[in-house]
Amino acid sequence: MAGSQVDMSHRVRRFEPADRQKMATFASALPEHDLLFLGRDLRHPRVVEAWLGAIAEGWIDSLVAEDEGDGAVIGTAALVRDPLGWSPHVGEVRLLVSAERRGVGLGRDLLEGVFAIARERGLAKLTARMTPDQAGAVSLFESLGFRGEALLRDHVRDPSGRSFDLAILSYDAGGVAARHEAFGVE
Predict the structure, then answer these.
(1) Where exactly are the structural domains of the chain?
(2) What is the fold of 7-183?
């Protein structure tokens, strides 16, 4: 049924202050379980304001994917760093994709954008956190070279008090960059 297919075209760009309302709409449509790994509830305007403040201060680089048809935010990725901490060489990757757009390459496009930013920032290691039952996300990250590093049992709780494990995956960005340099890969 070619006529009933959803247009999957999207554009990836930097997250900007003008995207506040689009981000609020996007976050409110996400399944609550998708938000558990974030540490803060993205549906609260103060959380989005703090996020934008951290972008302005240079602590976070963030991308949005928007639908080329209506301009709605359909995915987001962030690379969070703490240049004043003990691990300034490490960035944490946060990825969210709308339920309707999963499995069509949107998450991969956002992660490739994050990899480019990580190279620009000279990061040696990337980490990502998610609940292990998010099989699609785990599979995507592993397909791009992330490997399981830790499992924290009963680490996050949803608003009803139900506990979930939290998986931490990591990626050796420095090693990959060194191999690319050695073999002349851009």
Answers:
(1) 7-183
(2) Aminopeptidase (3.40.630)
